[in-house]
Sequence to fold (217 residues):
Amino acid sequence: MDKENVSDFPKLHAPFVRADNESGEYVVENQINDGYEWVFEDDSVRAVEKIDGANASIVLGEHGDVDSVYSRMGTDDINRIQTFGSNYPFIIKGVLNAIKRDWLQDLEKGTQHYGEIVGPKVNGNPYDLNEHIFVPFEYLYKNVHYESWGDYPKTFSEISGWFENGLIPLFYSRMHDIPFDELPEDAFVEGIVFTHPDGRKAKLRRDMFDWYDGERH
Fold:
């Protein structure tokens, strides 16, 4: 894959309109964003847990080897992370740990794959991990999604109540091998990326709702 074809992961938007509330907080309202009706109308949409990490991507060679690693790290530029002499060695370690877990073996060869780096040095380590790991979005789509999506009315009030009281920390449960009914009360879950099979995505975080009491993005 040519370097000029490498790109940053596109910014995702909420499926609901956002506006400032009385406190000046930018929150979602009971109105669907134009062009995002598919989130609620298409039964093929999958509700994938959104994880809180550092955006990164890898390029796989034709034989499945990792050709290069990229990270935005808070800028709009694509920065190639060199295996040696990198300022962010935990990113390289995260990719290596993903390889050890066989999380890359089923990814399409010869192309770029996006994901998140999570672990001790990323965003306060909300998943209580002992090591860094690169989590491809393809892995999340396949393994970390809410099968109950679509079983209940897809209204603003129902979704708000689900996010406030019933959003199970699937990724935390999987990483620590803890059953849902034994998860600690502070087990972290950030939100959902609604994902269409054709690649369309929309994000919805818990901190986008008016009821959220805590630090917002």
Summary: The CA atoms of residues 14 and 61 lie 33 Å apart. The mean pLDDT is 90. Residues 54-135 form one domain. Residues 89-100 form the longest helix (12 residues).
